[in-house]
Structures are given as structure tokens and as C-alpha cells.
From TrEMBL:
<dbReference type="Pfam" id="PF01370">
    <property type="entry name" value="Epimerase"/>
</dbReference>
<dbReference type="GO" id="GO:0050577">
    <property type="term" value="F:GDP-L-fucose synthase activity"/>
</dbReference>
<dbReference type="InterPro" id="IPR036291">
    <property type="entry name" value="NAD(P)-bd_dom_sf"/>
</dbReference>
<feature type="domain" description="NAD-dependent epimerase/dehydratase">
    <location>
        <begin position="1"/>
        <end position="102"/>
    </location>
</feature>
<protein>
    <recommendedName>
        <fullName>NAD-dependent epimerase/dehydratase domain-containing protein</fullName>
    </recommendedName>
</protein>
<dbReference type="InterPro" id="IPR001509">
    <property type="entry name" value="Epimerase_deHydtase"/>
</dbReference>
Length: 103
């Protein structure tokens, strides 16, 4: 997906030490865990492609839950990026977050 493509591009440009975490390794909904990540790993650049997503059916069925969790994820990441002096942050959103007939 997009995150994997970013990693491939960075590695092709000579960035050989990306700090990667799976959902199982770092729960971005857990504010304390996110803070501990910043303390332990001290990232300078953050590329955020993580989100709570589903297919069309899940997105329609769990709209409120998905937006709530995605807001928690973004708030945790952005808050601590600012607090710990991250140099650059790229935050990507999925096209699935927009309504079907969005202008």
C-alpha cells in the first residue's frame, strides 16, 4: 500500500534505517504507547499512512467508530511529533474517508 511504497522509495534514495512498526508492535490509538515510541526512537521524520479502514461495507457500517479512531491516531501522532520536535511530518489520508459524492 502507500506506506510500503514510501519505504521502498526512501530505501532507493539511500535511507536505509527506517523506523517501522506494525499495528501489533505499536497501537497508535494508545496515547501512552505513542509517547513511549517517540521517547525511545526519537524519529526526525514521520510519514503517516496508518489508519482504521475497511471496505465500502465496513466504512458505511462503522462510520462514527472509524472517524473517532482515525482522529485519535492523528491526534496522538501529531501531538507528540510537535512535543518531541520532529523535523517534518507527512500525514496521508485515504480516499475512503470522503463521501462517495464529495465535491
Amino acid at each position: 500500500m502507500v506506506g510500503s511504497a514510501i519505504v521502498r522509495k526512501l530505501e532507493s534514495e539511500g535511507f536505509n534505517n527506517p523506523i517501522l512498526r506494525t499495528r501489533k508492535e505499536l497501537d497508535l490509538l494508545d496515547q501512552t504507547a505513542v509517547k513511549q515510541f517517540y521517547i525511545a526512537d526519537k524519529p526526525e521524520y514521520i510519514f503517516v499512512a496508518a489508519a482504521r479502514v475497511g471496505g465500502i461495507h465496513a466504512n458505511n457500517t462503522y462510520r462514527a467508530q472509524f472517524i473517532y479512531e482515525n482522529l485519535q491516531i492523528q491526534n496522538n501522532i501529531i501531538h507528540y511529533a510537535h512535543e518531541f520536535g520532529v523535523r517534518k511530518l507527512l500525514f496521508l489520508g485515504s480516499s475512503c474517508i470522503y463521501p462517495r459524492n464529495a465535491p
